[in-house]
Write a structure and sequence with these properties.
37% helix; binds adenosine-5'-triphosphate
């Protein structure tokens, strides 16, 4: 069997059951991702980005098509696909160290006590959180909690790191620091990453390719923009780089000309609450 592509989404479609009948959120989503690629998903609120991510995570089952990771069909959540959500989701009664340790214990890691300690410490070090290893989530800032969430995901040694607006709730400066850390970690570990973002600069700075989604219903991939900027990337140098600005412009053009959102935020929220009525809650920006 061919192993050319590491992660493949083929003809993925998703219908959600609603009181008014099935709602076709996604249609014909096709994407081939290579090992080590950093992919951003961008598109207007409600287009289906989280649905795509949740299908890759194995949290949702596509109603059409499917996902293959290293020649194996994805049918359920697994430690080889770790997820980082916008709201860290750390266990509040466990220290940063214990939160990471618990995640590692859930994988079949076969580490001795000493190796486990070294591994947890190593992952906290990667996200620059060694100094706060013994703090509870309530004792650290939002940015620090997000760092621990990333350490926890990385410590599981996932083949694919899935991030749903990981920096969405952070102030601009903290966000910039975390983006730099994620770029550093990606350069070091070479994980495959899929990240949802609403931030055009973040998408251009971090990605190898930006996947731009059309508005729903029946949302799909509208365009894919390869970002051919040399790494390591420096945000200050890139601010004056014409190629960087060209990429930014392409994404903005897609979002605000080609896929201009006609629906107001109010209409979107109303529609969402009607559709869900008791279904799983998702984050709305
Ligand atoms: N469990 C569900 N039941 C019914 N409809 C749903 C469900 N989950 C999502 N939807 C609908 O599917 C569409 C895509 O939702 P999704 O959350 O994937 O969008 P998104 O692009 O991630 O949005 P945002 O950027 O606001 O987080 C929306 O119209 C949403 O209302």
């Amino acid at each position: 069997m061919s192993n050319k592509h590491h992660l493949e989404l083929t003809q993925v479609g998703m219908d959600f059951p609603t009181p008014k009948g099935p709602f076709n959120a996604l249609q014909d989503v096709n994407l081939r991702i290579n090992k080590g690629e950093f992919i951003s998903l961008i598109g207007h609120s409600g287009c289906g980005k989280s649905t795509v991510l949740n299908i890759v995570a194995g949290l949702y089952k596509a109603t059409k098509g499917g996902v293959i990771l290293d020649n194996q069909e994805v049918n359920e959540p697994g430690p080889e696909r770790a997820v980082v959500f916008q709201n860290h989701s750390l266990l509040p009664w466990l220290s940063a160290y214990k939160n990471v340790e618990l995640a590692v214990k859930q994988t079949q890691n076969g580490r001795s006590k000493k190796e486990m300690k070294e591994w947890v410490e190593h992952n906290l070090e990667l996200v620059h959180m060694s100094h706060a290893a013994d703090k509870l989530p309530a004792e650290i800032s939002g940015g620090m909690k997000q760092r621990v969430g990333i350490a926890r995901a990385l410590a599981m040694e996932p083949k694919v790191l899935l991030m749903d607006e990981p920096f969405g709730a952070l102030d601009a400066l903290t966000r910039a620091h975390l983006q730099d850390s994620v770029m550093e970690i990606h350069a070091k570990l070479g994980n495959t990453v899929i990240m949802i973002t609403h931030d055009v600069d973040e998408a251009v700075l971090l990605s190898d390719r930006i996947v731009m989604m059309t508005n729903g219903p029946a949302a799909t991939i509208g365009e894919i923009l390869p970002i051919e900027l040399a790494r390591p990337r420096n945000r200050i140098e890139l601010a004056d780089n014409p190629q960087y600005n060209h990429y930014r412009h392409e994404v903005l053009k897609f979002l605000y000309e080609k896929q201009r959102k006609v629906e107001s935020v109010e209409e979107h929220r109303k529609k969402q609450s009607e559709q869900k009525s008791g279904a799983t809650q998702i984050n709305v920006a």
